[in-house]
Hints:
Low-confidence stretches: none
Helix content: over 70%
Largest sheet: none
Strand content: under 5%
Shape: elongated
Amino acid sequence: MPARSVITQLPPDIKAAFDKMLIECGFSDYDGATKWLNEQLQERGLEITVSRSSAHRYGQGFEEKVAALKIATEQARAITEAVGDGEGMVGNALTALCQEKAFQVLVKMGEINPDDVDFTKLTVAIAKLNKTAVDQKKWQAEAHSKAKETAEEVVREVKKSGLSEQTAEEIRKKILGIV
């Protein structure tokens, strides 16, 4: 197993600022970014020096993650625009994906260095994911129930105004999304 990057072990505020700098410079000015990072570490009195090659290796992995996140965000936006998200399908898919990733970590526990996994955070994340899934299903049921009530109310009003049973049924189906 390769050694952990020294950058991942930096104080969170310095690492976050370094990450931001890499994004802002388009993952290109590693000389400047490394110089800045080492100055920040010296100002804090930390006896750590980050080499340009270490910063570049870290930056390459980070750039891949940023690119993947951008693609996922663009795809989610496109899907939401194309099909809507009235029933929270994107949220369901995201929750399911996160649950699957957490499950993969648990399955691979024998292969993972225990020092690399914060079990408390992992179990809290799993609990939150499960709560999110339950809340999402509850919200969907409530939204469906309200839509059904509204559809029935509209059908009653439409019938009062003299429209046919067939027309009223078509209106009800459209409100409920049953085409």
